[in-house]
Amino acid sequence: xxxxxxxxxxxxxxxxGYRERGTNDTPFNREFGKLPGYPAGGYGYPWCxxxxxxxxxxAGLTPDKDFPYTAGCxxxxxxxxxxxxxxxxxxxxxxxxxxPDGGTHVEWVxxxxxxxxxxxxxxxxxxxxxxxxxxxxxxxxxxxxxxPRIHGYGYCTYQEDDMPLTDADAKKVAKAVIAGLTHKVxxxxxxxxxxxxxxxQQLDPKSGLRQTWAYGKDTNARVRKLEKTIAAQGATIAxxxxxxxxxxxLLVDELVERIGARVEEALAAHDVELQDDVDEPDPEDESDxxxxxxxxxxxxxx
Length: 302
Fold this sequence. Notes:
Blueprint: H1 4-13, H2 27-32, H3 39-42, H4 48-58, H5 73-82, E1 86-87, E2 95-98, E3 105-112, E4 116-128, E5 131-144, E6 150-154, H6 167-180, E7 183-184, H7 190-193, E8 202-203, H8 205-246, H9 252-269
Antiparallel strand pairs: 1-6, 2-3, 2-6, 3-4, 4-5, 7-8
């Protein structure tokens, strides 16, 4: 069964090459409806958003549920942001908004590459049959992903939606998982009876990671200490056995000196330094997350 994402693509693609014959008076505006204060009987308004709105509706998406059914770019951005479906990551099927606050222009993202996005947009400029036209039609374009004109992306919902979660959705899932794994220690739990955790202490994955790291470091130190003790005992026994086997008169001072030398050799063989310079992991560190919005600059009016 064809997904609505593919249906949307086919709907938008079939309009590539359309050029308006009047001042913004297009079939897309006619289908969307009149807006007061505009020429051509209320149909002569900028049509970049009415183009994607009408096309997505024709493709079977539900207006104001799967996408914002609007003729205004600022309204579209506000709709996505209010539903936590707006971000900086380009995805096929998303709407890309340009200019300050995303209010200048909008296009539909057809394809994403490591460096560019391929878009289909209306009321925009583009090339057709070797000729360039300025702001009067529907064109397929390639835009650099790092373009300062890009404000961000609104994520539409499709019937067979294989698109990854938005950043906001991913954070919600992470918080829900942490909440499900968080609990308070009760007096009946083994860790409380052994004095490892205090009754009533709250445990979560972050504190658990720190505790595991601390116990691992402590266990390593204890094992090394035990190994040294066993090595010293073994050296002592071996030295005594050797001395008794000689059958000569044992001189206490000489025997103690021999035992001490053997013990030092045994300890040196087991002396593995603990890496105390290893930093404790910090689960709170989110320095790898860059929430800084990309700069924007005014773009050409749609």
